[in-house]
Design a protein that fits this description.
three-stranded parallel β-sheet, 2 domains, single chain, Helicase, Ruva Protein, domain 3, elongated
Length: about 200
Amino acid sequence: MITDGAEIGPEVLDLAYDPGSRFYQAPPHIKAQGGVLIIDDFGRQKIEARELLTRWLIPLERGWDTLSLITGEKVSVPFNAQILFATNLNVNQLADDALLRRILYKVKIPNPRAEDFAEILRQLCRQRRVLVTDGALDYVVQRLYGQPALEPRASHARDLLDMVVESAAFDGRDPVLDREGVDRVLSMSVTQHEDEGLGG
């Protein structure tokens, strides 16, 4: 699995030659051969969304792509990968119908329900080995979902936990998800006042 995001530009879509080692570096869609290529923040790349779709979807349909050598020669290589595009932009503004039809499955992922958010956070705490005090998960959900202006997203669980872990590392202690820590990180990131929306 290969994951790329907004850093993709036209220069990474073809072979990159390193004169020092005298080797070519394959572009991400070729590195993902036989696997999955995930493009995060689709539509925010340094290349137009339509150009990126055209560059990949048509060769993907035919099963091979053409890459350029520094000599000017062209080489054809197999192209067989699953490409997943993730975006929070309106897809109809990213490409025309002809291109969008080539993406067979379009799945809208809604913001998590309160119980789903708690489970996401619980699993992240287990993965990151963060101790959770009694009632801390419910407290996070209460803080986030108790404010009508907020629209908690699944990524907020990760961001909140990152701040808990970083805060603990700065203080030289083991990370713990508790009410005090939750209040501290939320005051710095998600909310500034009870009547404000999400920051960032």
